[in-house]
Write a structure and sequence with these properties.
The structure is a single chain. The protein is of the alpha/beta class. It has 13 helices and 17 strands. The strands form four sheets. An eight-stranded mixed beta sheet has the order 6-5-7-1-8-10-2-11, with helices on both faces. Strands 13-14-15-16 form a four-stranded antiparallel beta sheet, with helices on one face. The longest helix is centred in the middle third of the chain and has 29 residues.
Length: about 550
């Protein structure tokens, strides 16, 4: 496979006409603006978009292009702009130098379908009906692309590598074109079965550029555009990129292939630290390879549009990866930070390096859609539960007591919800009786960022401060959880997954990424063939 262009910060031309300047970790803008209003009395009873702010659209330039980059399974702590010293993400770090970096952005769930559904609908998984493995995004869900197309005149184009956010899962709503690359461009290990495949980043970039060029012709030529690219490289299986990393490759027999990973996960208790480090090495290689593909995308786009003045760029991930920080290699297993804390970089048209800021206040991925709509000069529909983040360009940070984000997951008999503030995170196991001694975990993310000490399991009585924090967060978690459940109501018609109705490419993607077993894959193919042969129209 050809090596992608390595675009370092010194030569990056993704934001032409802007002087390069550093945006050091921990720096914030010294600019001031109108004071952000405090949380109004009773706001806790309605947790969505709880902070009232001035309308930011008066000072924003409507983007001619919106570039929405999703990098699947990307941990925030692997980016240089988030403090990593590994040197894996020079291109993403360069974007950060002209962007608002949200240091504590939280995914709404720790697996793809639920999380991306929240990005597109600005609703939490329970509210939008896309929470479990059996759920699809309902046809009557209101999506970002639909609003941009209907009210803003945007043509929306999407290219994706994860079938969990595919067109036959309901994620194409509002897009004029939303597809994967051709199936023959998938890559796999020779030792893997033919159904264990995934699309490499250079394929996503190439077809994103091709689709943008094709859809920019004819009747759509003068319309603004949103391009969504959903890269999947950091997601397992972890494919090798020999010589890409500037570090020695750890020894060991594990390749990171689907076949190997299934074996590793079965014998996880017997793995050595060297075994784990080899997989972490392969994961790092995938991150760096994907970053290079993003650089290639931006390099080519800069030749046809002014990324600095005309383009809004949003970069994020749907979730992180465990890498054994808490015993699990993959994701969709819990709500620890390594699985739900994700990068979020937002560049608005006209931003310079002087406008770059790092915001430590927690935000949620449900905030992305309202932020994009506001930049396009559009109001968010009443169904949206997120908040417009554009005031963070100039407004001072909120006090920690006002910032809370909610996340949840219900997957493979693991059912959790969590509320995170600037300092603390409270996690509840929803499968246990409410109030049970082990149904809650409380972490101090300032003194314990790795979440190794559950404050509720310390010896002796709970300290007064921790007891007060627990009471406050329990009350707020209950408020958020109840509001999310109530918002589900009858507003969205729930739609359930039938593997036999999925496109063959989607089935291969799900099998290749480990979401369905070989048996489920074969059964779905057989059922699909029988249905097609029976004349029932499916």
């Amino acid at each position: 496979m050809r090596r992608l262009r390595q675009l370092g910060a010194a030569s990056l031309s993704l934001l032409p006409m802007l002087p390069m300047a550093s945006c050091e970790r921990g720096s914030t803008s010294t600019e001031t603006s109108k004071e952000v209003a405090a949380t109004p009395a009773g706001a806790a009873a309605y947790p969505f978009a709880i902070v009232k702010r001035p309308d930011p659209r008066k000072s924003l330039k409507r983007p001619k292009a919106i570039l929405f980059i999703i990098i699947d399974t990307l941990r925030a702590d692997h980016l240089g702009c988030y403090g990593s010293t590994l040197g894996l993400t020079p291109n993403l770090d360069s974007i950060a130098k002209y962007s608002i970096v949200f240091e504590n952005a939280m995914a709404t769930s720790s697996w793809t379908r639920a999380s991306v559904a929240s990005m597109y609908t600005s609703r939490y998984p329970t509210s939008n009906g896309c929470l479990t493995r059996e759920d699809l995004l309902a046809e009557d869900a209101v999506t970002l692309a639909e609003e941009l197309a209907r009210l803003g005149g945007y043509k929306c184009i999407g290219i994706y590598g994860n079938g969990n956010a595919g067109w036959d899962m309901g994620f194409d709503q509002g897009f004029m074109w939303y597809r994967t690359p051709p199936i023959h461009e998938q890559r796999k290990y020779e030792s893997d079965p033919p159904d264990a495949l995934k699309f490499p980043a250079d394929s996503i970039t190439r077809h994103a550029l091709k689709a943008l060029q094709q859809k920019s012709e004819g009747n759509y030529r003068d319309r603004p555009v949103m391009l969504v690219t959903h890269y999947v490289d950091p997601h397992d299986p972890y494919l090798p990129h020999p010589g890409l990393l500037n570090e020695p490759e750890p020894a060991g027999r594990w390749s990171g292939s689907r076949t190997n990973l299934l074996e590793m996960d079965r014998m996880s208790h017997a793995l050595t630290e060297m075994d784990k480090e080899r997989i972490r090495f392969l994961y790092r290689g995938e991150v760096k390879y994907c970053d290079a593909a993003v650089g290639e995308l931006l390099h080519n786009l800069s030749a046809i549009m002014d990324l600095a003045k005309d383009t809004m760029i949003v970069v994020t991930s749907d979730h992180g990866e465990g890498l054994w920080d808490h015993g699990f290699r993959d994701h969709g297993t819990d709500l620890f930070e390594e699985q739900v804390r994700v990068p979020l970089l937002i560049h608005w048209p006209g931003m310079t390096a002087n406008d770059a800021r790092i915001i430590s206040e927690p935000v949620s991925l449900v905030d992305i859609a309202p932020t994009i709509l506001a930049a396009a000069g559009l109001d968010s529909p009443p169904e949206f539960q997120g908040a417009d983040l554009s005031p963070w360009r100039t407004a001072p940070p909120l006090s920690p007591k006002n910032g809370f984000v909610f996340t949840e997951m219900n997957l493979d008999e693991k059912n959790f919800e969590a509320l995170r503030s600037a300092r603390y995170k409270l996690v509840r196991n929803r499968s246990m009786e409410l109030g049970a001694s082990r149904s809650f975990q409380l972490f101090d993310l300032v003194s314990d960022p790795k979440e190794m000490v559950n404050l509720l399991e310390t010896s002796g009585d709970l300290q007064p401060e921790a007891a007060k924090v627990l009471e406050q967060h329990q009350e707020l978690l209950w408020t958020w959880s109840s509001a999310v459940l109530e918002a589900a109501g009858d507003e969205v018609e729930r739609k359930h997954l039938d593997l036999a109705e999925l496109d063959p490419t989607t089935l291969q993607l799900l099998r290749g990424l480990g979401y369905i077993s070989a048996t489920e894959f074969e059964n779905a193919k057989q059922s699909s063939n029988k249905s097609k042969g029976s004349g029932d129209g499916k």
